Amino acid sequence: MSDYDAIKETVFHYFEGYRDKDRERLEKAFSLEIANMMGYIKNKEGKLELFSMTMRESIDKWVAPDYTPFEFSDGNILAVDIFSDVGATWRIVNKFIVNP
Description:
The chain has 100 residues and is an alpha+beta fold. It is built from three helices and four strands. The N and C termini lie far apart (41 Å).
């Protein structure tokens, strides 16, 4: 398998694992010992707030029975940049359908 195909497979483990609340696929997508999820989310006042949590915490949240995943549509990988035998970045564009 080429590096590009391995990265593509990993990205889809993430998206499909998230969508299906599939712990096994999510755990294939991340290095659980070192990965963290970080980003911005709107708080109750509508302001962006920085958050950070370990991947284990994120996956626990995503597969919880009472968690409703965001709906995805029209997702595409824009670019994969492989810069060493152990490092790469990928960029995606995806529409999230958020039901208030």
